[in-house]
Structures are given as C-alpha cells and as structure tokens.
Amino acid sequence: MRRLPALIVRCLAACIPALGLLVAFGPAASASSGGTASAGHSGSDAPALAARVALAQFLAGRHGFDHPARGHLHVLGLSGQADAEGSSQSTNWSGYADTGGGFSAVSGSWTEPAANCSGLQTSVTSFWVGIDGTGSSTVEQDGTVAVCLFGTAHYFSWWEMDPTNVMQLVGYSVQPGDAITATVTRSGTSYTLALTDSTHPADSFSTTQTCSDCDNASAEWIAEAPTVLFGVTPLADFGTWSLNDAAATSGSVSGAIPAFTGGAVTMVDSSGDVQAQPGALSSDGSAFTDTWLRSS
C-alpha cells in the first residue's frame, strides 16, 4: 500500500472548493427512499458539506481486488496467496469473498464503526457488500465510507457500478452506531442496490441499474482501502467492523458465506505486514469481525 504524499494531500485540501463545483451533489441516479445531498442539513452548512462530499468522491475510486501481495491464489482463482483454509491476501481488501459464478444476490448488516482520526493524514475505509470484483472487471456494490480529514471523521452512504460510474454518494448524515443493512440483487441484467440506515433514514436509498456485461462471478463482504489515481489510500482506523446476516444466492442455492467456494481475505502492505484481519466465521457462517491493525 502506498501513502499519499503530503504535497498531494495539501493540494487536495486546497482544491476542495473547486471539486465542489465539479461534482454533482443530487441524489444517486434512480435512487428512492433516501435523501438528496442536502438531506438533514440546513443551508448554512451546505458549502462545507459539499466540500466533504467532493473530497470523498475524489478519494473513493475503483473497488476491485487490488494487486497481489505475493504468490498466486489457488482457492479463489485470484492473484494473491492462499493457505489450506482458503484464505488470501490483498493490498486493499479485508473480509470474505465467495466465488463460483451465477450470483444474483448478496446482503449483510453492520453497526457503523467509529473512525479514529488522528493527525493530519487523510485516510479512508469503505464497508460494502457486492457482486463481482473477485477476478472480474466489474463490481456492483453499496455500503458506507469513513473519511478521516485533518483529524475529523466524515461518514457517507454510497453505491457504485464499476466501471460504469464512480462512487455515488447518497447520504452524509451517517454516524457511528448507525444500524446499516446493504443488499445487491440481480434479475437478468437489472441490478437493485439498496441500503437502509435505520438510525438516520435520510441515508437510505434504492437504485436500479442495468449491466449487460457484468460477470456475476463472486459475492463479497469487504472493508476496503479505496484505490485512487495516486494508489491505494491509507486505511482509516475503524477499530473493529462486525458484519452480520451475511447471505448470498447463486443459481438455486442460497445461504451464508460457507454455502459457496471462497474464504477470508486479509489486507497486507507491500512488505507483507497485516493492515486488517478478518476473524473466523460464526457457527452459522453468517457473521465475522474484521480488525484494523495499521493504516499503511
């Protein structure tokens, strides 16, 4: 994982007002049941919120499984390193991924963790569920993201159809402790991406998108350090993320994570040092915790 140079971070901060003019801040395309970019906020703080949204959208780039730490992943069929239990390593993902093809649904729920933002380092952690991204060129996903900016944490809900669009921010009244449920479901070439924030409903949304060439090859439950133009962002200190109610559907089979071929994904840096580590699955295979260890 590469650290964003201090000069770039200062440049990003200086460019926030300009970015605010370039990014559309309305509701996500075809979204419903959830707020616009100004939901839950008065006009007096709109410029500051627009700046935060612009920075988050700029930082949050592609979400696919990043370059391998080393070796070759035999179990998931990806670049990475596997052990006998089917775990793998990535430079930007931590969590669980299932493969096998034909996926039509994935879901999970969590309580939004509090990001521990210290110093002036810009860092980001995105929590999501999705179809594809594991050994494929497309990702259909939604979730939440925490951005540490000059010692302050900012939280958003979002969805993305990569590579068709960049991260689409919908709600920015997400707070630590919010009860989040995220789903992606497919019917033919139609994908419905939905997120419910039961604590702050303005962050909730449902959008239906079309993709005729998506692979539907995998399902994931991931904590991620997003990849941007300059490389992988430093991973924001999220403490522990607890993913619950994990489920997926492939063909006629529906079940928790162990119902399909796959395994754990551990995030490591270029030296092989662990940055985020998923724990063992619960007895029914529907829950796990993911622990932050280092930002970069």
CATH architecture: Sandwich
- What is the helix content? 10-25%
Number of helices: 2
SSE succession: HHEEEEEEEEEEEEEEEEEE
Main beta sheet strand tally, sense and closure:
16 strands, mixed
Give the overall form: globular
Oligomer: single chain
Question: What topology does this entry show?
Answer:
Layout: H1 6-22, H2 46-59, E1 88-90, E2 93-99, E3 103-111, E4 123-132, E5 139-149, E6 152-162, E7 168-171, E8 179-187, E9 190-197, E10 205-210, E11 218-224, E12 227-228, E13 231-232, E14 240-250, E15 253-255, E16 261-268, E17 274-278, E18 288-292
Parallel strand pairs: 1-16
Antiparallel strand pairs: 2-11, 2-16, 3-8, 3-14, 4-5, 4-11, 5-6, 6-7, 8-9, 9-10, 12-13, 14-15, 14-18, 16-17, 17-18
If you had to describe this structure to a student in words, what would you say it looks like?
The chain has one domain: Sandwich (Jelly Rolls). 10% of the residues lie in helices and 41% in strands. It contains 2 helices and 18 strands. It has helices at 6-22, 46-59, and strands spanning 88-90, 93-99, 103-111, 123-132, 139-149, 152-162, 168-171, 179-187, 190-197, 205-210, 218-224, 227-228, 231-232, 240-250, 253-255, 261-268, 274-278, 288-292. A hairpin with a 2-residue loop joins strand 5 and strand 6. Mean pLDDT is 78; it is low at 1-44 and 66-85.
Characteristic key phrases:
2 helices, mainly beta, two-stranded antiparallel ribbon, Jelly Rolls, disordered N terminus, 16-stranded mixed sheet, 296 residues, single chain
Provide a short characterization of the protein structure.
With 296 residues, this protein is mainly beta. It has helices at 6-22, 46-59; strands at 88-90, 93-99, 103-111, 123-132, 139-149, 152-162, 168-171, 179-187, 190-197, 205-210, 218-224, 227-228, 231-232, 240-250, 253-255, 261-268, 274-278, 288-292.
